[in-house]
């Protein structure tokens, strides 16, 4: 891959990833409610989900999923249900219950980390636009029949760095918001806003044609 192609690939990937969406909303919420360190677990889940979508797309399996419709629809509805689930959880959960859970999470910390990882993973793979994006992007920069191992490594390592880096930037934003506005009312309001965004995004995907 030439330097010109790499720069073009990086810029397209970066601007598509940094654009606000379900992933960024989740990152901000986790940064605010769980802090930078614990957001790494949801960032890791999000990264694994994106790499999985990329692998499916680069192998050409995404075209089969889209054409068949059944698996694609199942993935779509998993994402919708999980988005609405997270949104409802943020809307109805009292702030005191959330704060208590974080403070008393030490004995059960591994389960908590797994939950954060799962949030990031499902939000990533449950967005059908991710499959469509990667399916359209990769053929512009790599041909699977003739590509070298080095080119595959460049494609996936760049994706990993950009996806993880952008997610953690939003997590830092959430942590900064928490530092600036430590009043319980603000965190409560913020959770209600992000919960509504998750539900709205899920409903928008549900009623979209694709």
Average pLDDT reading: 79
Number of beta-strand segments: 0
Q: Please give the count of helices.
A: 9
pLDDT < 50 stretches: 96-111
Please state the CA-atom Rg, rounded to the nearest Å. 18 Å
- What's the shape? globular
In N-to-C order, the SSE pattern is HHHHHHHHH
What kind of sheet is the major sheet?
none
Fraction of residues in helices?
Answer: over 70%
What fraction strand?
Answer: under 5%
Number of domains: 1
Class based on secondary structure composition and strand pairing: mainly alpha
SSE map:
Elements: H1 3-18, H2 22-58, H3 61-68, H4 70-92, H5 95-103, H6 109-125, H7 128-137, H8 149-180, H9 184-206
Helix pairs in contact: 1-8, 2-6, 2-7, 2-8, 2-9, 4-6, 4-9
Word description of this protein:
By secondary structure, the protein is mostly helical. It contains 9 helices and no strands. The chain has helices at 3-18, 22-58, 61-68, 70-92, 95-103, 109-125, 128-137, 149-180, 184-206. Helix 2 (22-58) packs across helix 7 and helix 2 (22-58) packs antiparallel against helix 8 (149-180). The protein is globular and about 55 Å long.
Give me a quick take on this structure:
This protein is an all-alpha fold and 210 residues long. Helix content is 83%, strand content 0%. Helix 1 (3-18) runs parallel beside helix 8 (149-180).
Key terms for this structure?
210 residues; 9 helices
């Amino acid at each position: 891959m030439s330097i010109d192609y790499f720069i073009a690939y990086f810029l397209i990937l970066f601007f598509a990833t940094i654009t606000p969406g379900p992933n960024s909303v989740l990152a901000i919420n986790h940064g605010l409610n769980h802090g930078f360190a614990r957001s790494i677990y949801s960032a890791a889940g999000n990264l694994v989900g994106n790499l999985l979508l990329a692998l499916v797309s680069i192998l050409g399996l995404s075209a089969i999923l889209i054409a068949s419709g059944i698996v694609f629809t199942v993935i779509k509805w998993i994402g919708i249900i999980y988005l609405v689930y997270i949104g409802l959880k943020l809307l109805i959960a009292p702030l005191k219950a959330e704060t208590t859970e974080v403070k008393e999470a030490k004995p059960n910390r591994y389960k908590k980390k797994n939950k954060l990882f799962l949030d990031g993973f499902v939000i990533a793979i449950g967005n059908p636009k991710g499959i469509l994006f990667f399916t359209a992007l990769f053929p512009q920069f790599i041909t699977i029949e003739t590509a070298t191992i080095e080119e595959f490594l460049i494609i996936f390592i760049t994706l990993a760095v950009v996806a993880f880096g952008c997610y953690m930037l939003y997590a830092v934003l959430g942590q900064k918001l928490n530092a600036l506005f430590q009043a319980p009312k603000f965190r409560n309001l913020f959770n209600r806003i992000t919960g509504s965004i998750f539900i709205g995004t899920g409903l928008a995907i549900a009623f979209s044609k694709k």
